[in-house]
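Exercise: predict the fold of this chain.
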Amino acid sequence: MQISKVGVIGAGTMGSSIAVALIGRGYPVVLKDVDEDTVRAGLGRVDRLLDSRVRKGLPPAEAEAMRALVQPATDYSAFPDLDLVIEAVAESIDVKRRVFEELDGCCNVHAILATNTSSLPITRIASFTRRPDKVVGMHFFNPAHLMKLLEIVPGLDTAPTTVRTAIEFGQKLGKLAIRVEECPSFLVNRLLARYMNEALWCLQDGVAGVEQIDQAACDFVVPVGPLALRDMNGADIGLAVARFNHQEYGERFRPPAVLEEMVKQNLLGQKTGGGFYQYDPQTRKRSGPNPAIEQLIQKVGTPAPGAEPFAVERLFLPMINEAFLALQEKVCEAEDLDPALMAGLGMRKGPLALAAEIGLSECLGAIESLFERHGERFRPAPLLKRYVWARRTAVV
């Protein structure tokens, strides 16, 4: 199927960024939201993103041509002519139900309906329509106009032609478009969650401090430490995601109490001026560790019995273990896993490359030791065991 004109539902931060990704490749876009003020705010965000490109060297005439490709809308009158619609509204199943029921009624029968959800089930969203074969997940990473990864997630009834069209379209946008089978939080956010949680456990257990954890992670393989990243995204959002994953996957995803307590105390990160670090309320510039975290740890901390030295590998072992679980479930192709994590998170090496570098046998031994000490969140993945038994030294 040829994609010529695209609609974006939701003119917020993500929807506006997706629109810029589209017009940057020459696609006309209908940008819709509920009222003129909201759409106008979205157009303002599009203008600011294009202005930023001009400051970095984009000719002003090209920016003007891109901006002319955006058609604002508060109704669905232009939608019968669209080939693809990308939904980027609130991460609420009830809101998405309303949007997809409306889209199903106004879009032509050949149009693909995509959702940018980062975690909600595609099959359930597709059930709100009479065309589940035409519904697919297209999970852009924020900011969508810059981030290279695009997770393409089919539902149970998504047609192969729909998946193929979505992947080809993502590639035309210049994205690394990877097929990911439907599972809670999909691939990248699922693996990220295990690493982010483990950083919190290390802090809560008194194994390492805030700056020690973040610096070690940055020196090892990531551009931003896990606790600084949590401050950027917001502890409240982090807790909502952690609760969802815990509900869906069980005990190994259980969030530590420190995150719950931070939300109770409104230590949400940059947006409240304090999280793991302190921030200037105007510039959001970081000024140093937040003393309130030490007091919070004293309240909810659970120091492990006996001295437990900190090793940066501990942060990534849960991610490595989850990668093997994902491969075992055939969530993605093995050769796609590391590129997805590198493109989506900015890692310099993916978890499978890290596992090979550390040694698969050494990884398993460390995970088994941590399993004996900490329980379910370190239960070794059966596929990792099989690789070690077969004396494999790498996955791909």
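Check your answer against the key: The domain at 188-300 is CATH 1.10.1040.10 (N-(1-d-carboxylethyl)-l-norvaline Dehydrogenase; domain 2).
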